[in-house]
Amino acid sequence: MDISNGEGIGVALFVQGCPFKPHCRGCFNPETWDFDGGKEWTAESKDKLIKLASRPYIKRLSILGGEPLANENLDGVLDLVNEIRILFPQKTIWLYSGYTWEQLFEDDKFDIEGGICENQTRRAIVLSTDVFIDGRYVDSQKDLTLKWRGSKNQKVIDVKKSIQQGEVVLWCN
Ligand code: SF4
Q: What ligand 1 atom has the least distance to the C-alpha of 67?
């Protein structure tokens, strides 16, 4: 259950493992850095999450980390967003990532882990979401008054409008 990582009442999934090095100074979730940490993602845990998300007062699913778009997490996250899309088309999906929109959609060569192929999967995941909060946390740009993000460099992006208009459109300032 979550009221701080997106609009309204939602369910949040924290994905384990962060490949960004050095890790961000002041990261709010260092326990998610280790790819060997966390709890195993199983069919049972997915069912539990879907059951929670099915409740009528749950308006969204938020996926955070760690890094949901790390190579190790791509298959599981893609599978989850596709299933949530089909089961609950009226609910919104929010995705937090250290990758920026520009790195994913405007730079075919950008990939901290290597491979255009992985970037295509990352794009497929982002395109299945409604709101994409992009970029690493930058401690020197920390601002506690910002909604749904920690530092000024991060953007809260309206994914559908951005695709329709061919440029980044913000969900909120
Ligand atoms: S990218 Fe995210 S999880 Fe990784 S160190 Fe930065 S804030 Fe923490």
A: 3
| Cα 94 from chain centre | 6
- Residue bearing the CA closest to ligand 1, atom 3: 66
Q: Domain ranges for the chain, please list them.
A: 10-165
Residue 92 Cα to ligand 1 middle (Å): 23
Q: Tell me the whole-structure pTM to 2 decimals.
A: 0.95
How far apart CA 79 and CA 57 sit, in angstroms, is: 23
Q: What is the pLDDT of residues 85-144, one digit of tens each?
A: 999 999 999 999 999 999 999 877 777 776 667 888 999 999 999 999 999 999 999 999
Nearest alpha carbon to residue 22 among 112, 152, 114: 112
